[in-house]
Amino acid sequence: MITILAIESSCDETAASVCKDKIILSNVISSQKIHEKYGGVVPELASRAHLQAIVPVVEQALKIAKVALEEIDAFAFTQSPGLIGALLVGAEFTKSLALAFNRPLIAVHHMQAHVLANLIQSGNTDSKIPSFPFLCLTVSGGHTQIVLCESPLNQKVIGQTLDDAAGEAFDKSAKILGFPYPGGPLIDKYAKEGYPHKYQFPKPKIDDLNFSFSGLKTAFLYFIRDEKMKNENFVEENLSDICASIQSRIVSILLDKLKKAANETGIKELCIAGGVSANSGLRAAFEKMGKEEGWNTYIPKFEYCTDNAAMIAITAYYKYLNSEFENLSVVPSARTA
Predict the structure, then answer these.
(1) Do you find a cis peptide bond into 133, omega within 30 degrees of 0?
(2) What is the pLDDT of residue 36?
């Protein structure tokens, strides 16, 4: 049995998880509320909050898993991408544990881990997980990718955003509507009561399997500005329909590209992952398209969609099997590559 303690600290969640082989025993997440009044994540404040939270989060993860530090076979952390100060807190803390207990150290790529969240099995080994090869639409606040996954450690990005990410499109739209940060979940909330085809927003004409959301964000900004000039109460009077319409457009952009990727590769095993995969509109549309196209569809549990350490742990498990260890000179990187 291989027992791994994993730490995630790439942005504004301090998280720790313990897994034994492929089973997640604990997954503790401490979210930072301090950023709400600033309308976005403040890197320096995020780093300080990680320093305060990391010890109690790790202690709680070990307690829930009923595992002592001495029983850990390897320690893992998020190496990239993310906020460099936030990454440093997790990296240095994990390196200290590896040094103190003379255990292997495993560095994990955050986006690779989001994809492998689809392989997490909680409590039993009968969980529904995809077969290889599979395609994964990975959508978060900072990244939008279509990944061809041939094995746990063999992933290839075959499509990605050329500018902004889908999560940014949600959050920017929410900010234009006057929602507090993070606003994406609020768009999802109001969209449930609205008509998704009330307002038509442009669909970017991008070749291949790549995405673009910058034009959509600008079009939405101008649309709201122009409508408010005609009626200052436009947003309040039409909020649900506005949210449903912009959410529908973002989802259609994502799934049209995923469908194209499935047709080009012939792969019928399809997954979604990342923070935006928690969006109920995307989840429902993905499953609906899967039935229409004859796909086998997979979505991680909600707690494994947003930033979490369980996805770091499961990725570290496969890296452990492949003896992909790091020495103490390893450093985090803010960049994707």
Answers:
(1) yes
(2) 73
Q: Given the structure tokens 């690779």, which residue do they identify?
A: 112
| Cis before 196 (ω within 30) | no
Contact between residue 211 and residue 223 where contact means Cβ atoms under 8 Å apart: no
22-36 mean pLDDT: 86
Contact by Cβ (8 Å): 151, 136 = no
pLDDT, mean of residues 14-26:
95
CATH 3.40.50.800 fits 3-122+305-321, yes or no: no
- Asked if residue 271 lies in contact with residue 135, where contact means CB atoms within 8 angstroms, the answer is yes
Structure tokens at 212: 């673009």
Per-residue model confidence as pLDDT tens digits over 44-84:
888 998 899 999 999 999 999 999 999 999 999 999 999 99
- Which of 32, 141, 137, 34 has its CA nearest to residue 82? 141
One of 3.30.450.20, 3.30.365.10, 3.30.420.40, 3.40.1350.10 is the CATH number of 134-300, namely 3.30.420.40
CB 187, CB 160: distance < 8 Å: no
337: Cβ contacts below 8 Å, ≥ 6 apart: none
Q: How many residues does the chain have?
A: 337
CA 167/CA 160 separation, integer angstroms: 13
Q: Are 186 and 179 in contact (CB under 8 A)?
A: yes
Neighbours of 138 (CB within 10 A): 26
Burial of 245 (0-12, 13-18, 19+ CB in 10 A): buried
Q: Do domains 3-122+305-321 and 134-300 have the same CATH topology?
A: yes
Centroid of chain to Cα 135: 16
- For 286-326, the pLDDT digits (tens) are 999 999 999 999 999 989 998 999 999 999 999 999 999 99
pTM of the model: 0.93
Retrieve residue 172's tokens.
């920017």
